Amino acid sequence: MSKPDLSVEIAGITFRNPVMTASGTFGYGEEFADYVDLESIGAIITKGLSIKPKAGNPTPRIQETTGGMLNAIGLQNVGIEAFVEHKVPFLRTVSTPVIVNFFGNTVEEYAELAERLDRIPEVTGVEINISCPNVKHGGIVFGTDPKAAYSVVKAVREATIKPVIAKLSPNVTDIVEMAWACADAEADALSLINTLTGMAIDVKRRRPVLANVTGGLSGPAVKPVALRMVWQVARAVKIPVIGIGGIMSGTDALEFMLAGASAVQVGTANFLDPSAAQRIAGEMETYLEQNGIHDVKELIGALEV
Amino acid sequence: MQFKSTVISNQEVSPGYFRMRMTAPPELAGSQPGQFIMVRVRDAIDPLLRRPFGIFDVGVAESEFPGLGAATYLEMLYKVVGKGTEALSGYHHGDHVDVIAPLGAGFDLGDPEEEKILVGGGIGIAPLYYLAKTLVQHSRVRFFLGGRTRDDILCVTEFERLGVETYVSTDDGTLGDRGLVTEVMERHIRENRSRKTLYACGPMPMLKAVAEIAQRTATPCQVSLEAYMACGMGACLGCVVKGKEHSDETPDYRCVCKDGPVFAFDQLKWV
């Protein structure tokens, strides 16, 4: 049998396979170049970007939990100018699509950044972060109120012709309502989930472990929640959904595809296995070969309930 | 680079402290003192993240297997503090671990003519042995080693075997001088006026004290920091420390994993 087709198409972009690297877990790509063949993954999604550089939260910022990790980095990033000057030249050398995750403090800032990213040819698409739980502004405020989410996505939509993905927070009562708001505002795709708000306590000191008190939980521990939300959202909207949450293996990725995801993002797994995205794409291919499936697209939403 | 390593030995050198020797690819012999490794303890999700360890030693030795000739080995010295190190402490000869190494920026070896002063506190001596081994080839090396109690004083004989003059102090006086190692070290600096560079690794209060002494005595000083990390390669930004320019208005965070773990003391903000 010929090699199975792993390519997927989202918002007019063809990805060689459905495995992308989740924002904030893969730096700006260059950090991982020695460990993973960047040409073998579906897309690189870069660390959340803002107009001005952002310092992030005080330390400690991370803590391992059972089957997961908490982080409260607080969106530390270099800002758009340094991104263009220092990060884009490397990204130019890679043929893999680059999706820039970004955020702002106000709707106007989101629009301004989208407009500036629109002018960078190396940027294939953008992912709107309205879901970071670790900062007061520039994220969760817009990600928990459907009207606010609508206005941000709409403003970004009008500011760029590049594909727009809205990244959703699980920290809401009804994620489908948020998905509808973003789809109504003409997002091209949705990615979910961002981290779940959690905390860890040091019993010796009777203090929270993280300086920020709470952080975002990621890793295998969140996978069942993520799968459920992807399944709910994928059947409720017409635009493609990208599944994120504790994907460690090809099997995990396939579960998300069956639940309705057109692609997946690998996050925490990059930290413990820097070649995780490449490995997971390989494992998906093996699964297709072994099961006589010619095209990975056949699996999208193929879950029988 | 990422590689599968075979445990050669894993000995408890003092209660709760282990020294593990493992196989490594030949390229590792070129590691700089002060660089570190990330170890994935198990191919499982608990513990989930890799654990960072300083390179205690790296070298080439006759293989334990007859006929295989010389092979590169890597050693780490670690204290059992949580479930990752607890699991590691149960590893035996022949077990495997997944390693990424070498990572980070190591020590600057400085001018061979000057005296080198190494200061280590507890498990903070881990990266100083390989540093001492490298430095003694060209320079005079003195090592000031401190701990809470005698059980925290590790590998003195190994340092002495390198020809390093070693000074020990413990908080409770159970071994060596009673008191802080930094006080003994400062006395030495003041009494011997020759040119020196300080190298330190240990708990933060000790490093702060060393940095203050370096400042007061105008002695160049490099410190190796320990930090909780997720990735070890500058992506997660979990392990940052404040750089010298840091303020709320002008953030200056440095990644311990990528910009360090070794920093010139005057590159960091100590308050």
Structure description:
The complex is a heterodimer of chains A (305) and B (271). Chain A is an alpha/beta fold and 305 residues long. Helix content of chain A is 31%, strand content 21%. Chain A has a single domain (8-299), classed as TIM Barrel. Chain A has helices at residues 79-91, 107-118, 140-143, 146-159, 175-184, 223-236, 250-258, 269-272, 276-290, and strands spanning 8-10, 13-15, 19-21, 43-49, 62-65, 68-71, 98-102, 125-129, 164-167, 189-192, 196-199, 201-202, 207-208, 214-218, 241-244, 263-266. The longest helix of chain A has 15 residues, at 276-290. Chain A is globular. The mean pLDDT of chain A is 94. Chain B has 271 residues and is α/β, with parallel strands linked by helices. Chain B folds into three domains: 2-103, Translation factors (Elongation Factor Tu (Ef-tu), domain 3, Beta Barrel), CATH 2.40.30.10; 107-224, Rossmann fold (3-Layer(aba) Sandwich); 227-271, Dihydroorotate dehydrogenase B (pyrk subunit), domain 3. Chain B has five helices and 16 strands. In chain B, strand 5 and strand 6 (70-79) form a beta hairpin. The A-B interface holds A 24-27, 31-32, 34-35, 47, 53-56, 59-64, 66-69, 71, 73, 76, 219-220, 248, 268, 270-275 and B 1-2, 40, 45-50, 100, 228-231, 233-241, 248, 251, 253, 258.
How do the strands and helices of this protein lay out in sequence?
The complex is a heterodimer of chains A (305) and B (271).
Chain A: E1 8-10, E2 13-15, E3 19-21, E4 43-49, E5 62-65, E6 68-71, H1 79-91, E7 98-102, H2 107-118, E8 125-129, H3 140-143, H4 146-159, E9 164-167, H5 175-184, E10 189-192, E11 196-199, E12 201-202, E13 207-208, E14 214-218, H6 223-236, E15 241-244, H7 250-258, E16 263-266, H8 269-272, H9 276-290
Parallel strand pairs in A: 3-4, 3-16, 4-7, 7-8, 8-9, 9-10, 10-15, 15-16
Antiparallel strand pairs in A: 1-2, 5-6, 6-14, 11-14, 12-13
Helix pairs in contact in A: 2-4, 4-5, 5-6, 7-9
Chain B: E1 2-14, E2 17-23, E3 36-40, E4 51-54, E5 57-62, E6 70-79, H1 83-89, E7 96-103, E8 115-121, H2 128-135, E9 141-147, H3 156-161, E10 165-170, E11 177-178, H4 181-191, E12 196-201, H5 204-216, E13 221-224, E14 240-242, E15 253-255, E16 262-264
Parallel strand pairs in B: 8-9, 8-12, 9-10, 10-11, 12-13
Antiparallel strand pairs in B: 1-2, 1-7, 2-6, 3-4, 3-7, 5-6, 13-16, 14-15
